[in-house]
Structure of Branched-chain amino acid aminotransferase:
Amino acid sequence: MVKLQQDRAVKTREAIVRGAAEVFDQYGYNGASVNRIMRRAGVSQGAMYFHFKSKEELARAVMNAQPDTIVPRLDSDGLQRIVDMTFVWAWQIQRDVLLRAGVRLTNEQDGTGMHDASPYVDWARILETSLTQAQDEGQVNESVNVRQFAELLVSACTGMQMFAKAVSGRQDLPDRVVAMWRILLPGVAPARIAASINLDVRRFA
Amino acid sequence: MVKLQQDRAVKTREAIVRGAAEVFDQYGYNGASVNRIMRRAGVSQGAMYFHFKSKEELARAVMNAQPDTIVPRLDSDGLQRIVDMTFVWAWQIQRDVLLRAGVRLTNEQDGTGMHDASPYVDWARILETSLTQAQDEGQVNESVNVRQFAELLVSACTGMQMFAKAVSGRQDLPDRVVAMWRILLPGVAPARIAASINLDVRRFA
């Protein structure tokens, strides 16, 4: 019985976060309201306030769900895993409203009064963990500072999706990510490893 | 007489653009109004409407003024010129309201209904011109696609300033730009050139 109630609570929370993502993706933070999100998610006021007390809490939940939409889709190791993470992200942002809304909220914080660095920092930590492992395995040059490299990748991906959004409605984002790796790989990986990386981004399309 | 009137018109326009930058920097696009900008710039309604017909026109003028705040400060050539451009930008965004407001407006377009890719594209063209020249001089590897490299630099700088804003109020942006070049240089330039690049970002502080 308790288990059933817990399952229901988890499902309700998921429905709210998805509804919030749809509303934030469409209207941005300032154009969204808790009422509109309640209606979109099809939940009662009681259910909403059981899970989330404010629009800001809803926005944080959406922003911080980003890695969950990517990491479970990966099955590679070493440097290829980091490349694949950016490839999956480049496609998912076009079709996954939760990821897209999270990115929009993260980037628009200036205009909202929110100041939450955790989406940037969390992504960088995830990449740094994989990069450290890849460096231990000899797939990333010793001279590379993996923390700085991880933060550069987060920055470059953040900026690429904005550039791609402005010029192509994000359609050319996967190609931009491939171009980034062609420029980065010769400097960060031994030649043998760089040559072995699969840069076919369409396998995740 | 005509010349004097022209000089006055140029000065009025500059005062308006600076006032607009201050207001956009402080309040964002949605929080700004033509009235508030008029008051900040200290100009009459007639003068304002002679130069700018709408808030959107003002925003475009601020966004597209970005390169003017950087390019005249450079005196280096080749690959060093491109490095220096990113270094000057990393400091100027902290102290030049025109640049900072332009970057904010460019990045916040989602929430405003504006869709102007020209700040990204203009920056990329400026970098591409310098990169092409550097490649012709043997300072950038033949294997590097200079257009893609230019667009990656614009993307990385866009994302780095957002990451830096979130974690340090932009104070660590110059160090992030140096870290980017340490990661990029070994892959894009011949070893002799890479070793010769001056990465002391503080000379522009």
Remarks:
- The longest helix of chain A spans residues 2-31.
